[in-house]
Amino acid sequence: MAFEETKIWQESRKLVNSIYLAIQNSTAFSQDYALGNQIKRAAISIPSNIAEGFERSTNKELIHFLFIAKGSAGEVRTQLWLASDLNFLNKKELDALIDKVKTISKMIQGMINYLQKSEMKGTKYHNELREPEAEFQGLEHFFQTRDTSE
């Protein structure tokens, strides 16, 4: 299974779009290039690190990149609070975005917890070739049918 099929990646991709829209919809926010660029980079880092981790060959590497993605989620939350402090976001916008980030962070932590307990260590250290799907047995609840309508 590909990273594009994970709920975590799909939701983090939607978050990036929401962050971009929030910046575009606020004249003051769109004119603060430092904060705007930093929050965009942090938001982009979440799905990017999820993807990079999935493309690696071991659970250890996937977990490492999931932790980076989770750190980026914390960075986004901090920057959202700063944007709110500067009156770039109203309370409703802030709450909606914070909820999205917290949900993604919890999903990432859930996958980390699962992988840390898993006996599967990845294909990198096996001599035989295996089907890619075997790598993700037990992770079915993290996957969903890809929504291509967006």
Report on the structure:
The chain is mainly α. It has a single domain (3-120), classed as de novo design (two linked rop proteins), CATH 1.20.1440.60. The protein is 67% helix and 0% strand. The chain contains five helices and no strands. It has helices at residues 7-24, 27-31, 33-55, 59-85, 91-117. The longest helix has 27 residues, at 59-85. It is elongated, with a radius of gyration of 17 Å.
Q: How is this structure best summarized?
A:
With 150 residues, the chain is an all-alpha fold. The protein is built from five helices and no strands.
**Structural class by SSE content:** mainly alpha
CATH class, named Mainly Alpha
Indicate the low-confidence ranges by residue numbers: 125-134
Cα-to-Cα separation, first versus last residue: 20 Å
Name the overall outline: elongated
**CATH superfamily annotation:** 23S rRNA-intervening sequence
Averaged pLDDT, please?
Answer: 86
What is the H/E order?
HHHHH
Q: Major β-sheet, in short?
A: none
Counted by DSSP, the helix tally is 5
Helix content: 55-70%
How much strand content do the residues show? under 5%
Q: What is the domain total for the residues? A: 1
CATH topology name: de novo design (two linked rop proteins)
CATH architecture: Up-down Bundle
- How many strand elements? 0
Radius of gyration: 17 Å
